[in-house]
């Protein structure tokens, strides 16, 4: 997979109110759960999770580690490190490293935007189905549809664990009904990750072509 495709997927990765009173109450409840989940993620000192990404054309697994605004992503054999200043795209197959300054679009791919992908000002929130997993967890889905008058075309579903308020699944549906689905398989938090997890050392990649884009 090319890094341009990886960027597109992580723009989705690296997230996510009616006339009748009952509908308004449902929207308020959905918004509250969404905000609780987003606030919980943003309050963590560090976290990591394994995930599965599925689209109409692709299916692969990955791992993300996050500390503040820094992150380390492994996806389909590729790696991406953001140290707070620069982003390092590492391609073992081509033995190549591309380096981007923070000002590049890559900088907005921090996984802390996992939920912020769906801006509350652009979407209507609706309480949707509840799913019970085999391990007993209950996942409440929130349906997001674009508000009229916005440029947003994509809709979404966000599944949140009702016990922990952590995200379990995010589904993006575009105007052509194509789906991108991110499922979080395991989640760990506050592990006191060392800063070395988010540092690029050229000496670790002998024989690689290292190119600084700007």
TrEMBL record:
Specify one Pfam family. LolA
Q: Which UniProt keywords apply?
A: Signal
Which residues, if any, are the signal sequence? 1-24
Q: Provide the organism lineage as a comma list.
A: Bacteria, Pseudomonadati, Bacteroidota, Flavobacteriia, Flavobacteriales
Q: What is this protein called?
A: Outer membrane lipoprotein carrier protein LolA
> Signal among the record's keywords?
yes
